[in-house]
User: Which sequence fits this backbone?
């Protein structure tokens, strides 16, 4: 498995600083969510070439997938994101779904989402970039978000029917929403492109809450997964120390 650092791990520092930390902390890539906020993509590309590590995941602009009137805007955002990814060498695009619409049946909203993703799929396939739907918890952090459960997310991926539309499974969100983390992380592994991790409660680094990340990550690794695990969390201590601790207490123990 490979490990990615997420932008914001070092508050106030830019993507080049984070890429340098990825290198020195023996991680494998950076997740930089708002590619449109990059000051100079050419500068970022030069830093990636110099360091030998790069941005492995970004987001598409935050446009609702469940609102049919915004379909063209969403697809335009996908096109622009693919263009940015082609320059950066980024192979994964994360997408939220937007909030549930009042007065519109969930089934109608899901059909809208599936149709929009079906229209996006040929663009993604041509670029060989994977779009990842991300369920988010509605109890603590994202009240009203349409997609929250991993089983529904997997069903949507199956309905789209493209090898380039999958999931990012965020262990923190799914622990809050549904529990059964290891069971679900493995049950839907063929639809999952990468994982996010943080402890609960608090959404801080592994080891600060109730989740046993040695067991969770060992189970994921033993399933044959060899993609990215994104450390998407806050830190209760210096990030360098926390990541070194993660190497020693988690990565080293899962083999």
Assistant:
């Amino acid at each position: 498995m490979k490990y990615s650092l997420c932008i914001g791990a070092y508050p106030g520092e830019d993507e080049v600083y984070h890429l340098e930390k990825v290198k020195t902390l023996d991680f494998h890539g950076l997740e930089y969510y708002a590619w449109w906020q990059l000051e100079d993509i050419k500068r970022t590309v030069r830093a990636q070439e110099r360091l030998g590590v790069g941005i492995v995941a970004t987001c598409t602009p935050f446009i609702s997938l469940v609102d049919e009137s915004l379909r063209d805007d969403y697809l335009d955002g996908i096109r622009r994101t693919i263009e940015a990814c082609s320059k950066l060498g980024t192979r994964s695009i994360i997408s939220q779904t937007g909030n549930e619409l009042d007065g519109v049946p969930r089934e109608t909203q899901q059909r809208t989402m599936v149709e929009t993703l079906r229209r996006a799929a040929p663009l993604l396939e041509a670029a060989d970039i994977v779009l990842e739907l991300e369920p988010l918890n509605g109890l603590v952090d994202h009240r009203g978000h349409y997609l929250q459960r991993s089983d529904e997310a997997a069903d949507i991926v199956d309905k789209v029917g493209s090898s380039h539309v999958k999931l990012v499974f965020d262990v923190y969100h799914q622990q809050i929403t549904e529990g059964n983390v290891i069971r679900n992380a493995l049950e839907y592994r063929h639809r999952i492109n990468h994982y996010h991790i943080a402890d609960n409660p608090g959404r801080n680094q592994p080891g600060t809450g109730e989740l046993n990340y040695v067991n969770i990550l060992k189970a994921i690794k033993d399933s044959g997964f060899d993609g990215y695990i994104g450390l998407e969390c806050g830190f209760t201590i210096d990030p360098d120390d926390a990541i070194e601790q993660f190497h020693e207490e988690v990565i080293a123990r899962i083999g």
In short: The chain has nine helices and eight strands. The mean pLDDT is 98.
